[in-house]
Amino acid sequence: xxxxxxxxxxxxxxxxxxxxxxxxxxxxxxxxxxxxxxxxxxxxxxxxxxxxxxxxxxxxxxxxxxxxxxxxxxxxxxxxxxxxxxxxxxxxxxxxxxxxxxxxxxxxxxxxxxxxxxxxxxxxxxxxxxxxxxxxxxxxxxxxxxxxxxxxxxxxxxxxxxxxxxxxxxxxxxxxxxxxxx
Length: 182
Known about the structure:
Elements lengths: L8 H18 L3 H10 L4 E4 L3 H11 L5 E5 L4 E4 L2 E2 L1 H8 L9 E15 L2 E15 L6 E4 L4 H34 L1
Antiparallel strand pairs: 1-6, 2-3, 3-5, 4-5, 5-6, 6-7
Helix pairs in contact: 3-5
């Protein structure tokens, strides 16, 4: 009787196949990971203002946009989708990229109350979701923001808060002067 020995080749082939499959699929998701890490750099500033004052400043800065949601208790302001096809095509006309069929964006603002020491501070985060449609076959694609709009809105909120604080100081000085006259 002949005993047949099993060759170790099927096990090696199986191990090699699993290793090859893991190697080829693990690198394909790097693009998604890279996009996700770039998107996580959301423009944020911490202001030395109370929550109500920062909320009103954010609303006054966003008054030119059509607001879809404003919930002060949750600290969220969302705009409706805004068409910016002309702006993107104009800005890209000086570059090498193709024109877009349509483009739109939405701005999401989060206002969060916090404390630094014993003083109340407010953290404002602005996220712009930009979507671009090159043609009807590809559909909408999310494009990373250049963060110019977000930084501009944060600057405007900062200036609005500075003006409000300056006006409060002037009113306090006037009230002290009037009390001193009596």
